[in-house]
Amino acid sequence: MDGVSSTEIALMFAVGTGAILLLVTAIVLFVVFYQKKMLQEQIHRQELETAYQRKMLLATLESQENERSRISKELHDGVGVMIQSVLTNVQALGDRVEADVRHDITEAVTHTHQTLREISFDLMPASLERFGLIHALKELCTRLGKRGSVRLVYTGDDSLSDVSGEQQVLLYRIAQEAVNNAWRHSQATEITVEVSQSQGQLTLRVSDNGRGIPPEVQKQSSGLGLFNLRTRAEVLGATLEFTHLQPSGTGVHVQLATHG
Amino acid sequence: MMGMNPNLVHAFYGMLELIFVFFIYQRLFNNRPRTAVVIVVLVFLLTAAVLNLLIGQGTNINSYSFTAQAFIYSVLAVVYFFYLLQHPPVVMIQRFPPFWFNVGVMVYFSGNLILFTLTHYLVHQLKNDLMIYWTFHNVLFLFGTGFMCLSLWMEYRLQKSR
């Protein structure tokens, strides 16, 4: 065989084929690991994007709350004082105006003042900034309880720890939205608001004895009210659950991890 | 009989394989390039293979055709891997059946590239009886087919789970 033995040929083929197979293995491993790396980078990018979106949402909500607070104070301390002064002037008119007319004007101005105070409170309760979430929720229950036939009750802790001002505002908005939803749509006769804190977990529960939210509405979350609840819970980093209560009613359950 | 290809089946099988592999890859590349382009390339390659059979290597092992085919399939396999990286079809690429089909193609054809290239030299210069050639070829064939079977089995499992 011209000086080349079978063993040498076999060795030559073995080396050549082995080298190519090694190259193939390297290519396959490269593809698998590179794809894995690409996937990890993609997940990392998505996480960054989600965090950025959350930050943007938080900034939007913060500026919204600041604006609400500003308008609320403007209404309460500016326009409210002016209306109060109009009322004083009307009462000071005395006999110069007929009693019926004075009474009508006084009633209209008082009604306007009351409405203004309610709008101001809905925009941003002063008690939330001054005394915190619990006080504001109690005030919400009292105020809404006076407006109609629905009984509103606050049950739960009297103080909170390790909950920042921003978190308290977001929790208040969730409770306010849930109470308003129950108030407007559930035909409930009683709404209960409860805040409790134990073992580093804060729980906010708003429950009513109304007709409940149909499951398809819960899933769609097309309503602005439910969307707002979900968005705020997401920004807060809290879990939000809707439960159907027995015999009737809905429970909105928010759970937030705190360090207290 | 040394270096002869007695029944010519192997040569015709190579041509049929060319058609199958080209159309399989056309499907894998999401029907690109267009069928007309694939047919033109196939006609060109098949004509070359037929000419090699008729006036070239004849009834000997048609190693020139097989070398060209093995080279083309190896390039196709490498390009398909990069295509998979650019358009990942699933989260875990190793759970995608065509990935293993491609591994099979790459192992068998790129592994055999050296064998096919050296066949003519082996037969005519070294007067070797091709025992070594067939040994290596068949081992690579086992690996290649094994990966292709794995791909088929994965596809079967996937279809079953749907």
The gist of it:
The complex is a heterodimer of chains A (260) and B (162). Chain A is α+β, with helices and mostly antiparallel strands and 260 residues long.
The low-confidence runs of chain B, each spanning 5 or more residues with pLDDT under 50, are none
Q: Looking at CATH, which topology of the largest domain in chain A would you report? A: Heat Shock Protein 90
Strands of chain A, count: 5
> In percent terms, what proportion of residues of chain A is strand?
5-15%
Distance between the termini of chain A: 88 Å
Radius of gyration of chain B: 17 Å
* Assembly annotation: heterodimer
Please count the beta strands of chain B (DSSP E, at least 2 residues each).
0
Radius of gyration of chain A: 32 Å
For the record, what is the CATH homologous superfamily label of the largest domain in chain A?
Histidine kinase-like ATPase, C-terminal domain
Instruction: Give the count of helical stretches of chain A.
Output: 7
CATH top level of the largest domain in chain A is Alpha Beta
- The run of helices and strands of chain A is HHHHEHEEHHEE
Structural class of the secondary structure composition of chain A?
Answer: alpha+beta
Main beta sheet strand tally, sense and closure of chain B = none
Q: Termini of chain B, distance in Å? A: 52 Å
How many domains of chain A, as an integer? 2
Strand content of chain B: under 5%
Total separate domains of chain B: 1
Question: Care to describe what's here?
Answer:
The complex is a heterodimer of chains A (about 260) and B (about 160). Chain A is of the alpha+beta class and about 260 residues long. Chain A folds into 2 domains: about 1-125; about 130-260, Heat Shock Protein 90 (2-Layer Sandwich), CATH 3.30.565.10. Chain A has helices spanning about 5-90, 100-125, 125-130, 135-145, 165-185, 215-220, 225-235; strands spanning about 150-155, 190-200, 200-210, 240-245, 250-255. Chain A has a 5-stranded mixed beta sheet with strand order 1-2-3-5-4, covered by helices on one side. In chain A, helix 5 (about 165-185) links the parallel strand 1 and strand 2. Chain A is elongated and about 140 Å long. Chain A starts with 5 loop residues before the first helix and ends with a strand. Chain B is mainly alpha-helical. Chain B is about 75% helix and about 0% strand. In chain B, helix 1 packs antiparallel against helix 2 and helix 1 (about 10-30) packs parallel to helix 3. Chain B is globular, with a radius of gyration of 17 Å. The mean pLDDT of chain B is about 90.
